C-alpha cells in the first residue's frame, strides 16, 4: 500500500495535487473538508454542527473528526492500493489517531508531503478560489482565522512528522505539473515506490 498525507496551509494546493496523486498511484482520496461540505449541503445534523465551526474558520473538535475518519476508513480501506489523506491530520491528537487507526487496519502511513507556499500567495489563491467557486469560507475574514488556526494548531504537525522522518518538503509555488514532478521524486526517494504510469 501507499498511504500519504498531503499537508499544508489552506490554499497551498492540497486538493489540486491530491487529484494528480490519486490518478498517478491509483489511490483513494479522503478530503475531510469535502466530507464536511457534503454534510453541510445535505442539511444533516452533522452538517449543521460542522458549519458552525467551518464558517468561523475554526477546526471541528478532534473527537468528532477522528470518529468521522474512523468510519470512512472502515468503509473504504479494504481492497485499496492506498489512501491520500487531504486536510487530515490538522492537530497533534489527530496525527496520533491516524497512526493508531492505520495500525488497527493493518497498515501504516508512508509519507507526508508538505506543500510550502508563502502566506501572501495563500491569501491571493483563496480569494480567487472564493470568487471562482463561491466556497463560503474563502472570504477575507474567515481566511485570516484559518491561517491563524493553521499556525497555532496545524503547523506543529509538520514538526511531529519531521521527528518521525516522514516529512517531504515540496515548494508549492509555481506550475502545477512541476510541483507534482517534485512530489513524485520525493515519494520515490522516501518510499522507493514508483508510479504505475
Ligand atoms: P479544507 O477543505 O481542508 O480546507 O477544510 C475546510 C474546513 O473544514 C476547515 O477550515 C475546518 O473548519 C474543517 N476541517 C477539515 N478538515 C478538518 C480536520 N482534519 N480537523 C478539523 N476541522 C477540519
Fold and architecture overview:
- With 197 residues, the chain is an alpha/beta fold.
- It has one domain (2-191): Rossmann fold.
- Helix content is 59%, strand content 12%.
- It contains 8 helices and 5 strands, in the order βαβαααβαβααβα.
- The protein has a 5-stranded parallel beta sheet with strand order 2-3-1-4-5, with helices on both faces.
- Helix 2 (32-42) crosses helix 3 and helix 4 runs parallel beside helix 5.
- The longest helix has 24 residues, at 140-163.
- The protein starts with a strand and ends in a 6-residue tail after the last helix.
- 32% of the residues are buried.
- It binds adenosine monophosphate.
- The site of adenosine monophosphate has 17 residues, from helix 2 and helix 3.
- Residues 10, 32-33, 36, 53-54, 57-60, 65, 87-88, 90, 94, 137, 146 line the site of adenosine monophosphate.
Outline:
By secondary structure, this protein is an alpha/beta fold. It has a single domain (2-191), classed as Rossmann fold.
Amino acid at each position: 500500500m501507499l498511504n500519504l498525507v498531503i499537508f499544508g496551509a489552506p490554499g497551498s494546493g492540497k486538493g489540486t495535487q491530491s487529484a494528480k496523486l490519486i490518478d498517478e498511484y491509483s489511490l483513494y482520496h479522503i478530503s475531510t473538508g469535502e466530507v464536511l461540505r457534503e454534510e453541510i449541503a445535505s442539511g444533516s445534523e452533522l452538517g449543521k454542527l460542522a458549519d458552525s465551526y467551518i464558517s468561523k474558520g475554526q477546526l471541528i473538535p478532534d473527537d468528532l473528526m477522528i470518529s468521522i475518519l474512523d468510519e470512512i476508513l472502515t468503509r473504504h480501506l479494504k481492497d485499496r492500493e492506498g489512501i491520500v489523506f487531504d486536510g487530515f491530520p490538522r492537530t497533534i491528537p489527530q496525527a496520533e489517531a491516524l497512526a493508531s487507526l492505520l495500525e488497527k487496519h493493518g497498515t501504516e502511513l508512508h509519507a507526508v508531503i508538505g506543500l510550502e507556499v508563502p502566506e501572501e500567495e495563500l491569501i491571493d489563491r483563496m480569494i480567487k478560489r472564493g470568487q471562482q467557486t463561491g466556497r463560503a469560507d474563502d472570504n477575507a475574514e474567515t481566511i485570516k482565522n484559518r491561517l491563524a488556526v493553521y499556525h497555532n494548531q496545524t503547523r506543529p504537525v509538520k514538526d511531529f512528522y519531521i521527528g518521525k522522518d516522514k516529512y517531504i518538503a515540496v515548494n508549492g509555488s509555481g506550475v502545477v505539473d512541476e510541483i507534482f514532478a517534485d512530489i513524485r521524486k520525493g515519494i520515490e526517494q522516501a518510499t522507493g515506490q514508483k508510479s504505475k504510469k
